[in-house]
């Protein structure tokens, strides 16, 4: 394996759906409702002849006070152990405070980041991704993890960062 790609983002943006899309099977647990405690899970993946490890994050303690910081801590750990990061945001919802906090954390971590703007299920919605240039995380890749749109281009960029 050439390296480790951590998939981070706030709950419900579609991280596990994306991981399953990349793996070509339903290994990661997709949840409609945030709040289930899960650990980081690492899978062996392959793209265009390159083997790598992909880490699905999403375990968090669903206590009322600390939910945000627990997610951030967990993401931070995954990022610290990774060679590159796929940062996933929800293109239907737009930017949230938690996205901004994760951006701050990612800047400090200094790892290469590829930005995935998910849930853009039709090409009509691709213009929405350009809003995310302002995050300063480079090119926003418009994707639909659910349908597979744009995931190839995203993976090309992610694997390039692992090499
Ligand atoms: P996670 O918490 O970030 O791992 O998100 P999940 O992968 O569990 O997905 C959360 C919800 O978003 C589920 O209901 C998914 O079916 C839905 N979802 C994920 N990707 C997409 C997508 O590309 N398009 C749409 N419309 N829904 C998606
Ligand atoms: Mg998940």
From TrEMBL:
Residues in EngA-type G domain copies: 3-163
Domain of life: Bacteria
Location in the cell: Cytoplasm
Annotated positions binding GTP 1: 9-16, 56-60, 118-121
Family: Belongs to the TRAFAC class TrmE-Era-EngA-EngB-Septin-like GTPase superfamily. EngA (Der) GTPase family. Belongs to the cytidylate kinase family. Type 1 subfamily.
Job description of the protein: GTPase that plays an essential role in the late steps of ribosome biogenesis.
Quaternary structure annotation from Swiss-Prot or TrEMBL: Associates with the 50S ribosomal subunit.
Protein name as it appears in the record: Multifunctional fusion protein
């Amino acid at each position: 394996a050439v390296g480790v790609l951590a998939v981070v983002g706030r709950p419900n943006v579609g991280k596990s759906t994306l991981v399953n899309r990349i793996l070509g099977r339903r290994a990661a647990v997709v949840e409609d409702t945030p709040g289930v405690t899960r650990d980081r899970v690492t899978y062996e993946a392959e793209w265009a002849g390159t083997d790598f490890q992909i880490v699905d994050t999403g375990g968090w303690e669903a206590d009322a006070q600390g939910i945000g910081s627990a997610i951030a801590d967990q993401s931070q750990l995954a990022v610290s152990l990774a060679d590159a990061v796929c940062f996933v945001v929800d293109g239907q919802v737009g930017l949230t405070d938690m996205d901004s906090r994760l951006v701050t954390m990612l800047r400090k971590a200094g790892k290469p980041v590829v930005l995935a703007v998910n849930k853009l299920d039709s090409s009509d919605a691709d213009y929405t991704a350009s809003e995310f240039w302002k995050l300063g995380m480079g090119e926003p890749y418009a994707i639909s993890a659910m349908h597979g749109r744009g995931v190839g281009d995203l993976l090309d960029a992610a694997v390039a960062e692992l090499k």
